[in-house]
Design goal:
This protein is an all-alpha fold. The protein contains nine helices and no strands. It has a single domain (4-134, 143-187), classed as YP_001051499.1 domain like (YP_001051499.1 fold like), CATH 1.20.1590. Helix 1 (4-13) packs antiparallel against helix 6 (114-135), helix 2 (16-41) runs antiparallel to helix 5 (91-111) and helix 3 packs parallel to helix 5.
Amino acid sequence: MPKKQDIFNKIKELNASEQLAFSISCCERMLPRYHEFSTAEGWGDVKVLRNALDMLWSHLAGQEISKEKIEKMTSLVADQEPETEDFCSTNASRALDASAAIELTLQFADSKDESLCLDISSLAFDSVDMGIHEKADTGARTFNRDARVSEHELMQAEVSRQNEGILLAQKWNSGELTLDQLKKMHKE
């Protein structure tokens, strides 16, 4: 089973189009966390994030997007990022991870800066990490916490999903999958 560092190394081996496809896939998986937060708290507009992802899918399909349009959408997404201190729920942190990942993906679409793709992957891992800690009995048992989290079934599932995202991005880029098939796989 691959580990987080293995995922980071694989991301570095992808070309820019594959990295964008992978990043969008991470965002698609994180978007429901934002929706849960928005519904529970009555704050934020998930439609703005959905529009950003739709724009990114179109860009991946070959539609040119101006720097100005990316900057405007990035600003709109940033406006949807919750201040975690304003909410009692840990859902706010996961919503922040989701919206920040979309913002970083927009920046990546413009810059092709590989470090942004790695940050998106890290945000997805961080969001799962937070869920594990929320469910865990962290009382007096904090010994070897990082090892327990990395071995936790939810973290292993995230590693598997990111590994699958990498493989699907490569299959799409090689022509084995259409963009519609890729989108459908990530929205299910």
